[in-house]
Design goal:
- The structure holds two protein chains of two kinds.
- Chain A is α+β, with helices and mostly antiparallel strands.
- Chain A contains ten helices and nine strands.
- Helices cover about 50% and strands about 10% of the residues of chain A.
- Chain A has a five-stranded mixed sheet. In chain A, strands 1-2 form a two-stranded antiparallel sheet.
- In chain A, a hairpin with a 7-residue loop joins strand 6 (about 230-235) and strand 7.
- Chain A is globular.
- In chain B, about 70% of the residues lie in helices and about 0% in strands.
- The chains are: A alpha+beta, B mainly alpha.
Amino acid sequence: MSLERLYLDTLAEATDQVPVSRARLLAAATSRRRPAPDVPAWAAPYAGRVAALDALLGSVERWDQVIVEGWTLQELVAHLAAKDSLLAASLGAPVLGPPIGGNDGLVRTRELQDFERERQPGETRRFWRDQADALCARLPEADPDRVIDPGGTPFAVRDHLLARMLETWIHTDDAATFNGVRLPHPVAKHIHPTADFCARLVPWTMLLSGFEAAARSVRLTLTGPGGGDWHIPLDVSRVAEAYQGESTDVALSCDVVGFCFLLGGRGEGFAWDVTGDGGLAADLLTAAPALSGP
Amino acid sequence: MEAPVVDDRLLHQRVVGGDETALGELYDRFAALIFGLALRVTRDRVIAEDIAQEVFVTFWERPLAFDPERGSLRAWLATIAHRRSVDHVRAEERRKVSVLGPRVYERPADMEDTVLAADEAIRVREAVAALPGGLREVIELAYYRGRTYRQVAGELGIPEGTAKSRIRSGLRKLAEALGGEQP
């Protein structure tokens, strides 16, 4: 190994001309695997996960075995295309495949799973990617702060894209784990807004789970690249923001990716450091996956 | 010299995330090395260019085949480049055998699937042994004994910058001894 390293360092020292054209290389590369769709900065975290799932789909062969939610990879990819298509419809972007029968994630999922069932994996991959690209192509004209409700969930457009990012990321990780592939994390600047979105969801998870905590508040410290420090009032009429020394009922600290996955319903083995009200921390942990669907 | 592991991880994250500027950076850093490696094996500039391009395209197309936990990106790219180059040379040999007939064409000794074939490894060791004393010392410390620049400097009682530039001079001498880029 040491001799090989020496050999490569020697060759690197010996060669200084680069004969391959960089432009030719990039053209050849992107014709074999599409780069992340070109989107405004607020949607870049989603575009990155689209490219990552596409990379994974290009390297796995087992499309017909159940991965998660009782779905095969083909059904999982159809599910992602279904959710993307509902958002695309709300934004006036093209909807591919059969027309949408109802503004509901699971109804649309079944429509597309039936549609894909007889098709080859490569066709399903292309269909999903084409729908994601069609959605992304619409975003430069979209107002990121407009509230819309695809699938009955009212959020600002920018938050819908972060929700799509999180779901695409989590299902890519499901499929990677199933295939024994180690999926690298998104870059920090894509993780941070996703973690911020998850932090802002926390009061809603408490409300949906029936915990009376509107008068209480949390300091949430997320560690690792893309992390940060949030002050979260557990009142849905208020918004989580950067922590600025407020006094809170409990302080929680954990890995930023672990926290995003917890909100996304992948909290197995999750733990956080708790300072303060342990009962409130336990309720927060119970409530956290409340908004994660299939 | 080899980039730190954290750079490999970041580049890998960016390539998986479909960021083609990361592929451009990777190309700027390693294209000369990968081309040089392919050229040493194939002895054909046009073929070596095609192989070098294919190595980077392969990484872009299937970036999850690389795992930063298991080795450096540079070594991974070099391994693919070497394998493709050897495949090319073998296919050429088979073609010559079928054109000339097995009795007329004598195939060269078998090539290995590692980046550094046994005969080339011997030449590297010989070239290191033939280096002037001062240069040989730093190369042996840095590569045979795995010392960092700082450790090399400390053991020899010289400034770190001097250790660094002496290692580079050693590498350039080795490159000359191995015949440089030109086959």
